[in-house]
Design a protein that fits this description.
Length: 263
Amino acid sequence: MSGRTVIVTGASSGIGEATARAFGRAGDRVVLTARRVDRLQRLAAELPDSLVVQADLTKPEEIGRIVSETLGRYETIDVLVNNAGLGQYDWLERLTDEEIRTEVEVNLIAPILLTRAVLPAMLARRRGVIINVASVAGRIGLPTMAIYSTTKFGLHGVSEALYRELRPRGVHVCTIYPGGVAGTESGRKHRVRLSGTPGWLRLTTEQVAAEIVALADHPRPRRIVPWVFAPVVALNALVPSVVDAVTMRAVRRALAAPLPPRA
């Protein structure tokens, strides 16, 4: 499919940047939104029919502006990709109030508000696709990622509820749950590192972007990538004590190492 109007949040780097390129190659009109306007403008130079909307997703009025500028330019919204996100990976007691609030606002509240903002245009046409970029950490609570996991669990819940609420009304809601992804470090602060995803299991941003475009073409409610994480998610739901043991072993190893500085 081509010729769609697609909004991609967090388009200045990582999965968002790769996703914007993938939709552009497919012949879609891409609305690029993030805070770093210089990076958005460089990306827009590669995409023949794109719109740059600089926005801070922690400000509700700027979320509304994304939608109004998109409709003002293209008149329709066919696909929304809620991708923007950040992570503060540390022991909970070392996180500041501001860090916690910002992570919740960007990762969870902003996608809810932006979804609400695009719905009138989609429901009026009884068509549209909303793709939420969650995480395997939104199906398995992971140490040092308490707030990140909280926001992604929340996004999972919102997505599941809205899929059931909106599908009979013509709008698809899809959620993608990536495992480890190389090239997504710009929005993350790893102050405490546990053993991460093995390199051979880590996806590239381009691989995740291809999965997102495939969901826009052929919507389905849930997609875990790579597929090998699906049994782990099922194991966590059915026999959580096994996952408890593995993750707590990683915590004990991290506790044996010197505590890194907060900066």
